């Protein structure tokens, strides 16, 4: 008798990733439906692959973040729009406004430090070695998030897809 797990004909990992990304869409959609203001101390860190299909960011940001970028939705954002496949938002970077369009499939992490909640996703676009980049510092963060939680509310799903 073999201890090897049989290959599944059902793509469970993809189904779960899609469902968890829908959480991000639902949360952002509730912000839009609530007038575009985050309730209480909630704020979001959203990390995404800048080279993923459908991502639209200004060239100067793509140069600065060739692989992955983290944005903060807290105080200074506007024009948040949420669709079935992704969202767009306007932010400022070093006092320069920029509109970003991000498909949900490009998101690799979503964190709300105000309630110690986070989701991590398998990268939809994988590269062998990510290039080094600076941390994103858009003008939306006042730096009051604790970020020092133990990660107890972070959900990470990685089924170790066979290739």
Automatic annotation (TrEMBL):
Annotated region described as Disordered, given as residue ranges: 128-163
Alphabetic keyword roster: Hydrolase, Protease
InterPro entries the record matches: SspB, SspB-like_sf
Feature: compositional bias, Acidic residues: 136-149
Any one GO BP annotation for this protein: proteolysis
Signal peptide (UniProt feature, chain positions): none
GO terms, molecular function: peptidase activity
Biased composition (Low complexity): 151-163
The name this protein goes by in its record: ClpXP protease specificity-enhancing factor SspB
